[in-house]
Amino acid sequence: MMKGVYNWIDERLDITPMWRDVADHEVPEHVNPAHHFSAFVYCFGGLTFFITVIQILSGMFLTMYFVPDIINAYKSVDYLQHKVAFGGIVRGMHHWGASLVIVMMFLHTLRVFFTGSYKAPREMNWVVGMLIFFIMLGLGFTGYLLPWDNKAYFATKVGIQIAESVPYIGTYIKELMQGGEIVGAETLTRFFAIHVFFLPGALLALLAAHFFMIRKQGISGPL
Amino acid sequence: MAHGHKSNEKVVFVGDSRVRKKAKTGPSIPPDYSSYPGKSEAFIPNFLLKEWMVGVVVLVGFLVLTIAEPAPLGYPADPTNAAFIPMPDWYFLFLYQFLKLQYVSKDYVVLGTVGIPGVAFGALLLAPFLDTGKERRFYRRPITAILMFMSLISVFYLTKQSWDHYQHELKLTNTIPEHILREEKAREAAEKGQEPGGEAAAAADIPLVDKDDPAVEITKKAQCVACHGADLKGNEGAGIPSFHGIGDTFTKEELVDIVTNGKNNMPSFKDKLSPEEIDQLTTWLAKQKKA
Amino acid sequence: MSNHGKQDKANSSAKRGISRRQFLSYTLGGAGAFMAAGMSLPMIRFAVDPILQKKAGGTWIKVVEASKLTNEPQEFKFKIHQVDGWYVSDPELTAWISKDDSGNAFALSPVCKHLGCTIGWNTEKNNEYVCPCHGAHYTKDGKNLVVAPKPLDEYDLKIENDWVYLGPIKANTRVK
Prior knowledge:
The structure holds 3 protein chains of 3 kinds.
Chain A: H1 2-13, H2 16-24, E1 26-28, H3 44-62, H4 72-82, H5 87-114, H6 123-145, H7 150-164, H8 170-178, H9 185-217
Helix pairs in contact in A: 3-5, 5-6, 6-7, 6-9, 7-8
Chain B: E1 40-42, H1 43-68, H2 93-98, H3 109-125, H4 127-130, H5 142-172, H6 178-191, H7 198-205, H8 215-221, H9 224-228, H10 252-261, H11 275-286
Chain C: H1 2-15, H2 20-47, H3 49-52, E1 61-65, E2 74-79, E3 82-84, E4 87-89, E5 92-99, E6 105-108, E7 120-121, E8 129-130, E9 137-138, E10 144-146, E11 154-160, E12 163-170
Antiparallel strand pairs in C: 1-12, 2-5, 3-4, 5-6, 6-11, 7-8, 8-9, 9-10, 11-12
């Protein structure tokens, strides 16, 4: 039955080569921790992606309860964490996952750097990877404000003040980030939109480019 | 299967990827591991299985962490809260601490916020175009490696310094971070069998009794308001009690003792206020009961 | 045919035990399923929590003195305490309370069972509940006459110390 459906689709769209290419491509020995234990350093990229998937899923579930509004944001986070079953765990996954994704990405970046894997022909992939790093930091910064507790509020204020010190355009950047004169209701909705739609969208596009280039160029050879 | 046309007629796609083209090996793609025959394995299932074994271990550890350590949540944002020590997330600490350094603050703040981080992150972004040599081993390209090591050391050092400074400040001001305080309160409340959070919310709403009492003037004169707030609601995060409903917590005698001799961080007021004034003030404070 | 050939092959390999590749594939599937489950089970439990929450038992709300009730339905408003997630409110509800011929009081919900508009008593001077939206009519007992598919819902009602108390809403019990 399943086979029949698959064949029917394959006949029309010729999908076999697409996944065959991913499934059957050969992975070299030097990145395989079963051969050399030190090759575990090559796992960090995959783990970053794994945690990113957890972040996206847990974030989607959190928005089922969260309200991006200065009166209700804190109440809804308090409610989802303390009153909803497994709320503490789902919010914990999102909170600690944010830290873990940075750790994993940091280690992945160091691995790529110290094995010189960014050298020709893989320069573009390094640049894309760094952009992913910056987007992750942006996600961390914008996500921090959302619970609207004291820590969120003051850390965001400091962050925006840093942006304000940019010469000439600083005040414009500040107002653009705040969506007004103060850190308040409009800042929260703005940060929410950036955190939930804009940055994840950019992240997915960059991830696609990252993976496409890895597949196209292969993993860099052994040292 | 395949209704509507003869089943033995195979659809032929233009540019069908199943038709093997002669592999074009561009000069830019080096023949890396394909020149090590017999030493590689298929991505699925052989290699991915090993990756996923690591993934399983990481996931289990991660879930244990989320269960053991709930995500912190402080008190609702209060822009007038002066006692709160703001701290960014740990991965921004190095930047936060960096901006406190002498040559990147005050007149040079632009250097600190845009200049140096801009150069550092810009260099990182464009590393492949700055380090263009063929050599990949890091010890054979000493300049790049040393720059990276130095940046790493300074990032770790600044993060540690920032964290130590934060801990020091917490100790100095005798502050408990409010997400910890909040959890302790919730646990105490749960032990007493109350609704968590109910008490704290209620305390803020208790009105002051006898707002026109002359003792209110004393609170201004004696600078009570400096710590306990202009609304006399104190500051829970810093352990400063609210005057609202304080009569439920302390008797008049206890209040006289606290004002005269101080308590915890609160200084003694016996030099600033006369015994009559203290009496007047504490009489008024003792009247501050919930209902 | 080719299908037969494949089956034979599969059978023979089953006799020899599974191949290395198959074993790896099953282990991979198992590891993948474990990760997917470990990741998504807490989230799914989190999402379905509303349907698993214990429903709060009904509380009785004091509405009006029993002596004020007549055989003619009258509209009474009362406030309930409602906790909706993090939003706590005291919305006002309406009930049409009247006595039947044997003197028993009953309270009907004003929500039309057709499409949820609010009905009124005797607005067409025919001693019937009338819905202004699509012209549904109900008898004094709440029996649906035209348009509406079901009779009007009823509130639990009790009388204590000459006060009428209303409880949770339930399906109409007066209409057979």
